[in-house]
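In this section we walk through a basic example: taking a raw amino acid sequence and producing a predicted 3D structure, encoded as discrete structure tokens. The instruction is simple. Fold the sequence below.
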Amino acid sequence: MVTHTDGPTGHRPQPPTGSRPILLTLLLASMLTTMAGAIIAPSLPAMEKHFSAVDNSAFLVRMVLTVPALMIALGAPFVGTLVDRVGRKPVLTASVALFGLAGGSGLLLDNLYAILAGRLLLGVAVAGIMTATTTLVTDYYPGQARSRVLGLQAGFMGFGGVAFLSLGGVLADLTWRGPFAIYLVAVPLTALVLRYVNEPPAAPAPQATDGRRATARFPALAYGIYALVLISQIIFYTVPSQLPFYLKDIGGIGASGAGLAIALMSLANALVGLNYGRINQRFAFKPVAIATFTLLATGFAAIGASSSLPLVLLGLVIVGSGIGLLIPNLNTWLASRTPAALRGRVLGGVTSCLFLGQFLSPALTQPMTGPIGIDGVYLATAALAALVVAALLLLRTPAAPAPRPATAPATAEQH
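The resulting token sequence is shown next.
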């Protein structure tokens, strides 16, 4: 059994009684981040055909999928600073409203470059939503409650992926513009954020042993977490960027079928994420990270090893299971070592690396599809995940500080 205490510099109070509307609103807002790019993945072949007269349309259409990730990666550190200095609620409210407007712009625009501009604004919105919601969760929920709620967040994001990706595939069969309509769900959600989300009180400033105000330190662990997040997303995002084309090649499967296949992966993600709190009670952070990349290696090996559709679907379930562990585990690990006053900036770095990996994924893997094929790309990503497993097994991580006596505040969450 793994025990927990709270973070190194204290924590903000838990939500007041009757806070279920607050939690539900945060979970619903978190679901929006699953629509940043993948929801339009089933539309890519038809969109490429529609804009075939545009130079480099094959590359630019894939950028419609991933350019939000570039803006999220660039904007998340800035947004994280705003979250710490301006407040969690103002950033979240503005971000949810912008998400609906920028995401839905693809319904009306008929210029590929204008659509790309709208996707850049969408990226700014997602950076704000992801950083603000995760920071609010870590503010309000200390210790084991935090891992449970971050698992719920991952589960909601996974179920959002199931619903939105399935619907996106159906709408993409009607018109490539169809999935853009789903972004408009953010409009009523903005009202919920204004109504139910409360700005938590500021965390007390850390004090040095001589009673003077101490300077909050950026945790060294963050750099390792950032590297794991970046690599995982380069690997993972080969699914939405390449799978629709792969399924079309091996089985003649159209947009709705591709959407359902990706939704199956999201379902596995959701089910595992919902159980992360229980997993975190039994296993330390590093073994869970090793299990995560083992699942990614196994799943992508199954996808790339055969043109059999059942094996591809099995591989997607395994990959989804790994992704269900990935973000709640790394976020909980990092939040447990981060001063409350720095959480927006530090967790903003996770958001940045998460989406930088998604943006880099097609740029790195698309040139490989010519010489080795899409199946070869999936086998290469499996090998990369296996290398990460080997590195984690060989790497010694510093032990957590021993807990102080019960009369003194704890210094770190024990793991």
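Looking at the output, two observations stand out. The two ends are 10 Å apart (CA to CA). The chain has 14 helices and no strands. In the next section we compare this with other chains.
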